[in-house]
Every structure is written in structure tokens, then in C-alpha cells.
């Protein structure tokens, strides 16, 4: 079902309401992810605005909501350290967007689904762990502490855990109380007993925690000044006195770093993670869509690329489609992209009109929001679920997490992906054929080699070893009855074996093995 004017009009009021709900959820997340990225807080708001308006118009998804995501926070944090400034990182964001558009035109929208699921979950779980570690200083009110949490080993010989221990010497009791109160609110707010009431369904838990944290800090100012937070422990968005001054708050890319190879490495990382999350979120969103509309994954890549190019030019964080906001959008009753665009427009109006109100938000409350986001990415249930799936899934998953934690994200992706592919290749290697044991028992000299449905060049070694170890004076039947595709290399191996079989006095019988299985397969592609 495609959206048309009548359909949009019919659901306009409901979509405006849904957009307001998504805004209430997205605002604290945009600020929190900016905090986790080490980027200016305003950059997360910009990304939320662009994700709503620009990507909302460009995508053909009716319910997807895009904005800054926790999955790219670690990349940006590392990138700022590597390139030296956020303005330099914006160049990488632009190139990432260009790469996404190119991938869309190359019809690479389905490629992401071929990445091993265990590796993907390992990446997300490791990001969740790092998000939690990175927010501990803010949760306890230690401003500016622990700035290299993305790397386990620090330059001064210390590491993540030794640095965390130092934080407890500088605890702010006011921030700690706000963090604990915020966590209690977020966790308790989503209990089924409260969700029976309309207010608790409509008003998001994260925003409730933020609002109550503001009142708590104001209470401290009047009655417990020793507990009150100072400006370094609060959100600090620029406040404009005019539209012209507001325009000056946007940051622009520093193209002087265009010759730095690290820019392109970071761009590849952003494009990979942002595209992967966007495609997976789109697939999940389509399943939630009450009308079961299918989103073009290639167009979605182009839309995300356009969004990231715009974000890079005006100082925004990288953008992805985000399943948390998308699911909230659907549950709030959204039927068309009007809801997505509305949430971006409301965010723009708020940051332009009421930044002083947003500057009352304690960073400790945003840390509590990110603790919950991080835990959802790396919950105990996920570890149990993957463990039950066996070592082929659990080893790539846990190795990816450990490598990311103790080195960096890119190394973790490479190592985890290698381990996952190893298991895939090994399974493929083992499943080239079925050696019919019943026939072997009936006759010591007879073997039946039943080729698998998909017999590729990856199976060459296994088949060659089987043929090489056949005893002299035996009888071999090669049966292709079950095969739907046999690679050309396999035919060559069989042709060569025809000659060697004569010297070993092996009787060779070939059944239902048609060489056109190879040529027909490729003609269909």
C-alpha cells in the first residue's frame, strides 16, 4: 500500500500525535548519544532534526525514524581523538554519506543480511558495555573525567579499570542521587502495572526521568546547596538572542584534513555500522508496520546517505534508522511519514525557542538513560540466548566483544567476522556430500557420494580428499540427484578423477550429474 494524499489526510491527526511522542523519546536520547560521542551536545539535536525531516522525506519507509544512534557513538568518540577535532570528523561523515548513496545505486541493500548474526550481536553488545563504562563518570558527577574510555590501555600506562577506580574519590552526591532516582523512574515506569494507565503509555520513561531530575536539582539549589550540580554537570546548549546568532551555532567541516588517510578509514567505519543498523532497523520496522508495507532497502541506503551528507555539512552526528524510535512511532499510532517529519520539526522549534530550559537537564539523568540503552544492547538474556545456540554462534559473539573491549571497534569487527566466517566455511566444507554408510556396510568396496544441493568451490578440498583416499579396486557412485547447483571446479575434479580412477582400478559410476546445473544457474542470475 503506497501513501497517497487521501491516506495522509485520513491519519494526519494521529500522525502528529505520534510525532510528538517520538520527539519526547528522541530528545533525551539525542542529548545522551552526543554525550557518549564526546561531541558537542548540539550535534545530537541536529542529527535528530535531519533524521526526522531530511531522511523522513527521502526514505520511502512510512514508519522509520532516523537520528543519532548508540552504535556509532563509539566510532565518533574514537574519531575525535584520532583526527583532533569534531570539525574534522564531519568530513568523514560526509564521505560516509556519499559511500551509502553509492551502495544504494549498486543495489547493495541486501548485503547487510549476509553478515553473521553472531558478529552483529557481538558488536552491539560490546557497544552497550562501552556505553555503560563511559557514562560512569557523568553518573557520579565527575565532569571531564575518563576521556579515553574507548581504549582499554591509556597512554600513561593506566587502563579502563584503574581509571574507573579513581572516579570514586571524587563522587558528587547530588549527581549520584539523580542517577539512582532516574534509573528507578525509567525501570519502574515501564512496568506492566503502570502501562495500564494512558499517561504512562503516552509519556516516555526517559523524559519523565529527565523532568524529575531537573526538579531534584532545583530542590538541591534551594534546600541542599552542597548537593546542587554546577554548570559542568548540566547540558550546555548554546542560547541565541536572534535567528542570525542561532545560525552561527552550526559547525562546519574542516576540509583541511581531506588528505588524511584516517578520514577515509573512519568514513568506512561509519558507513558500515550506520548502513548495517539502518537496514536491520528497516527490516524490523517493516515487520511492525500494521499495513506490512515493504521498504526499498536500496532507497533507504540513499536516504541515509543524503541525511549524513547534510549532517556533515552543518555539524550533526551520523544518522541511522533506529529501531527503538521506530517501534515507539508504530506503537504511538503512526501510519505515514508525517509522524517522522513532525518529530524533527518539533525538535527544531524546541532547540531554537527553549534552549535555556534544555540547559537545566543534569548529565547524570542522561547517563541513566544511556545505562538502560547500553544494558538493552548487552543484557544477560542476550548472552544466555547466544550461549544456547552453541559454540559456532557463541565464540564469534564473545570474541568480538572481548576484542572490541580490549582494542577497538574495527579490530573487533575484523576478528569477530573472521571467526564467524571460519565456522561458516568449515560447515560448508563438511557438507559437500553425504557418504552413504548403509551402502558401505553392505559392501566393503562400494562407496556412494551424494553431492549436496549447493556444491561450490569451497567444497573442493573435502571432495578431493575423499577421492584421494579411496582404496584400489573399489566401486564409487557419484550421485547428483539432490544437487541444484554444482560449481564448474567440481566438474573439473570429477573429470580428473575419471583418469586417475583407471590407474587405481576404481569402477566409477556417475548418476544424475548434469553439467548444465552450473550454466543454467548463472544464466538465471
UniProtKB/TrEMBL annotation:
Q: What residue intervals traverse the membrane? A: 12-35, 41-58, 65-83, 89-106, 118-136, 171-190, 202-224, 263-284, 305-324, 344-373, 394-425
User: Which GO annotations describe the biological process of this protein?
Assistant: transmembrane transport
- Where is it located? Membrane
Q: How does it sit in the membrane?
A: Multi-pass membrane protein
Keyword list (alphabetical) reads: Membrane, Transmembrane, Transmembrane helix
Q: Which InterPro entries match?
A: SLC26A/SulP_dom, SLC26A/SulP_fam
Residues of the SLC26A/SulP transporter domain: 12-400
Q: What is its main location?
A: membrane
* Gene Ontology CC annotations of this record: membrane
Q: Report the PANTHER family cross-referenced here.
A: SULFATE TRANSPORTER
* Name of this chain's protein: Sulfate transporter
Q: Which organism is it from?
A: Gillisia limnaea (strain DSM 15749 / LMG 21470 / R-8282)
